[in-house]
Amino acid sequence: MTKATIGFAMCGSFCTFSKAFEQMSALVSAGYDVIPIMSQNACSTDTRFGSAADMVKRAEDITGKRVLCTSVDTEPLGPKKLCDLLLIAPCTGNTLAKLSLGITDTSVTMAAKSHLRILRPVLLCAATNDALGASAQNIGRLMNTKNIYFVPMVQDDYVKKPNSLVADFSRIPECVAAALKGVQVEPVFS
Fold first, then answer.
1. How many other CB atoms are found less than 10 A from the CB of residue 121?
2. Which helix (H) or strand (E) element contains residue 113?
3. Residue 150 and residue 143: Cα distance in Å, rounded?
4. Three-class SS of residue 47?
5. Which strand (E) or helix (H) includes residue 2?
6. Residue 41 to residues 10, 34, 104, 121: CA-CA distances in angstroms?
7. pTM of the full structure
8. In Å, what is the CA distance from 149 to each residue of 2, 21, 36, 108, 175?
9. CATH homologous superfamily of domain 5-180?
10. What is the DSSP annotation of 148-165?
11. d(CA 105, CA 97)
């Protein structure tokens, strides 16, 4: 029996894609219906972490569904109530900024806007080198926004990258279950 439908949106923090795919598989294995979503950059940029075509194929193989990668694809998520929760994993500093300012110029930010307008939870799994720098104000605004939740995060390398935070991807299933109940898993920072 399907637990809930999760929109699983991925932004361009390519170094965390392997962790994201692991959790995408875990959610599917746990009985969630997962709809894959990728930003335009995530679904079209080849990097040292793999080709865009391989990343799209992996998401489609895990979920059995076509990846949504345009604003036209993701706008109906809200009006048609296609998801119970939208997860953005990874959520880049760029996407955090856009979400905090209401900018909806990507498939992922459109998915979030569409989903939030029907008052359903959005769970952010941040991965950004400037979380304690330029992105700190955006994280603060989003923490104070109704229906926005965060996967707990840690400084991933406080010596070489003192402003960097990355969410604990392994906690995504726990945070999904909590956000579906309207609860923020604490502590957010450790």
1. 24
2. helix 107-116
3. 8
4. strand
5. none
6. 10, 21, 15, 24
7. 0.96
8. 22, 20, 19, 16, 8
9. Flavin prenyltransferase-like (3.40.50.1950)
10. EEE--EE-S-TTT-TT-E
11. 12
DSSP string, 65-85: SPPB-SHHHHGGGTTTT--SE
Sign of CA dihedral 141, 142, 143, 144: positive
The pLDDT of residue 2 is above 80: no
Residue 169 CA, distance from chain mean position: 10
Residue 15, pLDDT above cutoff 80: yes
Q: CB within 8 A of 102, min separation 6: which ones? A: 113
Q: How many residues does the chain have?
A: 190
User: Peptide bond before 187: cis, by omega within 30 degrees of 0?
Assistant: yes
Amino acid code (one letter) for 122 = V
Tokens of 159: 């010596």
